[in-house]
Structure formats: structure tokens, C-alpha cells
Write a structure and sequence with these properties.
Number of helices: 7
Helix content: 25-40%
Largest sheet: 9 strands, mixed
Shape: globular
Number of domains: 2
Number of strands: 14
Family: Belongs to the glycosyltransferase 2 family.
Radius of gyration: 19 Å
InterPro entries: Nucleotide-diphossugar_trans
CATH superfamily of the largest domain: Spore Coat Polysaccharide Biosynthesis Protein SpsA, Chain A
Order of helices and strands: EHEEEHEEHEEEEHHEEHHEE
GO molecular function: transferase activity
Keywords: Glycosyltransferase, Transferase
CATH class of the largest domain: Alpha Beta
Pathway: Cell wall biogenesis; cell wall polysaccharide biosynthesis
CATH topology of the largest domain: Spore Coat Polysaccharide Biosynthesis Protein SpsA, Chain A
CATH architecture of the largest domain: Alpha-Beta Complex
Structural class: alpha/beta
């Protein structure tokens, strides 16, 4: 990148979660640095429209559901980054729709990606409790009082960088990359459709290509609360389908903790080295059709 300030794009993919998206937009609009482009890929959701909050405009591109009705998460992220690069982005930040941006998230990502290109940089994410009656703070500076990053990932302090090469720690909740590195990476594998597997696949692809994985303490995000199921039973078919894709690419199954819990609940079983639904068929291919 040249000495000119980088063009920074924030890309979010969404289906529903309109209130969370609005909160994210407000947090980005009040950050210490605004992105040059804020782009939302709306997956089968015509209710997501272009809007302004303060000086920050939200652009929207639309993407239909994948064949079979699953949400095309990997394809949507790739479309968002591709569109941002077409807009001239030098630095692309991918931020989950549930995440509020910390005050310096955009600035910190822009700084580290510009200074140390060739890496994928992630920021710590705090999972917020349910909001109080008045809602979460609208000023991102006030989110610092809630700061308590997820313990299963590196937790550098603001101003610190951590080099963490374990690809299984990568997640797409919040990360940033420079344009040439993204092109070298090739984006998310679009064989994954629906929920599960694509993040770990991207992390492993990065490491295989010699792309570093790092964590930047200044790029803090705050995940807005929503009900979840553990394990995510509603995504069982996606997990089985995407798990088999991962096995074909990497020789092992991901998400084994969830699969073992599904097994304990009698929902899946192991068959010939694979996981299949506990159903009437003994053909593992049938479980991922």
C-alpha cells in the first residue's frame, strides 16, 4: 500500500437481525475512524436497505438463498469482499452482524493491516449479556466498561499484537486483511453452505499458503446477546454436510465437540469414519444431500 491513507471497507453479512445491524451501524458511525465503505450483503432479506447514520452510509447488495434453502454464508462473505475490492478497498474488515464495533476497531485494523500486510488479523470479541432496559451504550467508547473478551481465543490488550498460528482459533466474527492477501487466499471455500466449517477451513488454507494469523488488541468488538442453543441442533444438517466437505478437504472432521454431543443425544452416529444422522439410512452420503 502507498503512503496515502488506506481505503477501509467494513463488510457484514446478514439475514434478519435488523436491530443488531442497526446497532452495529451506529457503533461504526461513532468510532474514532469511519470506514470509507460500509457494505452489507443481505441474504434473502429484502428488508435490509441502504441507510445513513450520521456521516456513514450503508450500502447493500442482495444474494438469494443457496439451492436447498440454506444461507450462503461463505459465498456472501466472498461477494462482500469482492464488491469492496471493486470499490477500491485496500483494507477489508469483516464483522459479524451481531457485533458492535469498539471505538477504535476500524482505526486499529487499518493501522495493523497497513503496517503488517500479508497477515489475517483478528480482534478480541466480548460476548455481551442481555441488554439492560435502556439498551447497550450507543457511544462505542462506553462499551469499554463491558470489555471481557471470549476466553477461548487470544486476548491481547489494546496496543498489543499476538501472533497465533493455530488455524482452529480463527473465526469470522471480526477480522481484517489487505487486498493482495485476500486475493492470494482466495476467500472462503464456497463448497460450504449454511452453518459451520468454513471458518476453520479458511484458517487452515491461510496457514497452508504461508499467511500469518495474528490478533490485534485495539480492534475490540462486542457481540450483542441473542438466544442460542448448545449444541446448535437447528443447524444439524448443515454441520453434517459441511463436516463432510471439511473431511474431504482436510482428512478429519471439524466441530467434533458438537458432533459428540449430538451423538449423546441420539441424533447422530459414527459410520465408516463419518458422522451421519440417526435415521433410516446407512448411506453417509444421504445424510448430506
Amino acid at each position: 500500500m502507498s503512503g496515502a491513507p488506506p481505503h477501509v471497507a467494513v463488510v457484514t453479512i446478514a439475514h434478519g437481525r435488523h436491530d443488531h445491524l442497526a446497532g452495529q451501524h451506529r457503533s461504526l458511525a461513532r468510532g474514532s475512524a469511519l470506514p470509507d465503505t460500509y457494505l452489507v450483503v443481505a441474504m434473502d432479506d429484502p428488508g435490509i436497505v441502504e441507510e445513513h447514520v450520521g456521516a456513514l452510509a450503508r450500502e447493500v447488495v442482495h444474494l438469494p438463498r443457496a439451492r436447498g434453502g440454506a444461507l450462503p454464508l461463505a459465498s456472501a462473505r466472498n461477494l462482500g469482499v469482492r464488491t469492496a475490492l471493486d470499490r477500491g478497498a485496500d483494507v477489508v474488515v469483516l464483522l459479524d452482524v451481531d457485533c458492535l464495533a469498539g471505538e477504535r476497531l476500524v482505526a486499529a485494523y487499518a493501522e495493523v493491516v497497513t503496517a503488517r500486510p500479508g497477515w489475517i488479523w483478528s480482534g478480541p470479541v466480548t460476548y455481551l449479556p442481555p441488554p439492560p432496559a435502556e439498551g447497550y451504550p450507543e457511544d462505542p467508547a462506553d462499551l469499554a466498561a463491558w470489555d471481557d473478551p471470549h476466553p477461548a481465543r487470544p486476548r491481547p490488550e489494546p496496543g498489543e499484537l499476538v501472533h497465533a498460528g493455530d488455524p482452529d482459533l480463527f473465526w469470522s466474527l471480526s477480522f481484517a486483511v489487505d487486498a493482495p492477501t485476500w486475493r492470494h487466499l482466495g476467500g472462503f471455500c464456497e463448497d460450504y453452505v449454511g452453518y459451520g466449517g468454513e471458518d476453520t477451513d479458511l484458517g487452515r488454507t491461510a496457514v497452508a499458503l504461508g499467511i500469518g494469523l495474528g490478533w490485534v488488541g485495539g480492534a475490540r468488538a462486542f457481540h450483542q446477546h441473542h438466544p442460542v442453543s448448545s449444541p446448535p441442533v437447528e443447524h444439524l444438517d448443515d454441520i453434517l454436510r459441511n463436516g463432510r466437505v471439511f473431511h474431504e478437504r482436510w482428512g478429519e472432521w471439524p466441530m467434533t465437540g458438537w458432533l459428540e454431543e449430538f451423538e449423546r443425544r441420539g441424533l447422530v452416529r459414527r459410520l465408516n469414519g463419518h458422522w451421519v444422522r440417526e435415521s433410516t439410512t446407512d448411506d453417509p452420503k444421504e445424510s448430506i444431500a
